[in-house]
Amino acid sequence: MSIIYTSNKSSKKILIGGSHEISTGVQGGIIGPMPRYSINRENISTGDGTYIGTKFTINITGTACINSNDNAQDITAKGQRQSRVMGEALTSLQVLREEFPTQGVGKLEIGAYGGLPNIITFTDARLLSVDLPEQSEENAGVQTLEYSFAFEAYQEKSNNTNTGSTGKPAPATYLLSSVDESWELSENDAFFYEADTPTTANDTLRKTYTLTHTVSATGRKRYKAAGTSLETDGEAFRQAVLWVKTRLVSDPRVEITEDLMGDTTFFSSKFLPIEMNKPDASDDLGFKLKSGTPAYKGYNHTRSVSSDQSVGSYSVTDTWVISQESFESTHSLEFNFEGGISGEGAVVTANATFQGLSTIDYSSGESSKTDKYAGALKAFGIIKPLIPDLAEQVYIDSQGEYALRKDFKLNESVAHNKVAGTVTYSVTFNDYDPPKITDAVSENVSVNYNNDKGEQKLIAALQVIGRANGPIIQDIGTTQISSRTITVDAVMKRGSAKPDGTAAIEPYRPLGNVYLTTSTESWNPNTRAYNKSETWEYNQDGE
């Protein structure tokens, strides 16, 4: 029996005991009696017991002897034998060190006597340590040398010819030292109105959620059976990548039917990410999102990827916003009631923000695109017609004294951000008296009264020569003529012709024996600004 170690870099063969000479084809090593060995097999499993691979620890212990053909080992010659024994020590210490940076990685073969079958073979054995213990009193450092090698391996590719054996072991699909997969579902502060019909009677809001899926693995280098090169995608990080790929999910509404290593035998319950539980589970631990009406789905699929080449690890984190599938946007609605502004009345201002949700996921091949703006625009089109009714309800809830003119928008603005995928909207309503001029957008009437109640006295001033106190003022017992000027300013709707402002002025005209002394109108077709002014003169007794 002998143990042969073949470098995966240079194919150099190293003998580790079991022979009295370095045979042809072997480039060096240690001669001596058959070494002793121990093999520890450790199954690598996840926390739930899922098997992902096997780690082997191989310890080889033996005794190195001086080559019998070495003439420089005369025990009577001072220091000769000790020098040769120390040479064996150097052989052990320096094994494979010249093969930097891949030293100590290769195929380890533990053979039977006479070269018979059932050779124990590891194709990725890594030399961990070399130990040369203290010399015993028997050899005193001049006869033999004890040694110990420690290896670790993950690929055992032996062939067992014994009756009843299974032959070669079934290799794992991916060579991994660790794997991890986790899901997290949490509530958001972002909401949307239920379905497509929020009303003053039903302001039901629906929650949104954030779903996070993290998959990570650490791989090992995967060598061919010959042990001289890597298999295709045999790099450690690529082994991790290939496994991570099998666990990625494009639609969190799809059930997971396999365990971490693709086995279905012991995974009958399945797992539904969007509900964080077994599909159709009756317990209260998860969320009832898929079965809702309408059902929820994933939006805003984002992905982050990390890789640590030094340890051969790879990790992917996917994130979704979970929202009802009839809506492709979250939105906020804010209403402000302000009463008694300049004594004119009350106003209600509505501010809305629509944040679109992207429906594009990474499996579509368009992961660099986004359609958030389309979702925001769709939601804006649905919610905008409903805002007047919602504003009216806010006016009522705020104890407004009159009636909100929800059919008249005092101010209105819309902002679009296609990059961020948002639409913002602002509109103001009031409870002011409606314009009397047909199709007027705004209307302002002012009335100027001159001696309206006859309080202005008509007097005579008599100048007296030498009177230091000025003229003599005498009330002649009558009053000045009264007048009233009525002015209306209006802005008309787009497309309107020149209006007639009489309807706005008429309620303020004086009654009785009155005389229209001035009447003017102005109209700007471009700005649609209109002005009408009347001046009326009259006496207090109507004569």
Could you explain how this protein is built, in words?
- There is one protein chain.
- With 543 residues, the chain is mostly beta strands.
- The protein has four domains: 151 residues, Pnp Oxidase, Chain A, CATH 2.30.110; 133 residues, no CATH class; 102 residues, no CATH class; 99 residues, no CATH class.
- It contains five helices and 22 strands.
- Strands 3-2-1-6-7-8-5-4 form an eight-stranded mixed β-sheet. A four-stranded antiparallel β-sheet has the order 9-10-12-11. Strands 13-14-16-15 form a four-stranded antiparallel β-sheet.
- The longest helix has 14 residues.
- The N and C termini lie far apart (143 Å).
CATH third-level topology of the largest domain: Pnp Oxidase, Chain A
What would you call the structural class?
mainly beta
Number of helices: 5
Indicate the proportion of strand residues. 35-45%
Helix content: under 10%
In short:
The protein has helices spanning 80-93, 236-247, 372-383, 387-397, 502-505; strands at residues 3-7, 13-16, 28-30, 36-45, 51-64, 105-110, 120-131, 145-153, 176-193, 205-219, 296-308, 313-324, 329-338, 347-356, 411-417, 422-430, 440-450, 457-462, 472-479, 482-492, 514-524, 529-538. It contains five helices and 22 strands. Helix content is 10%, strand content 39%.
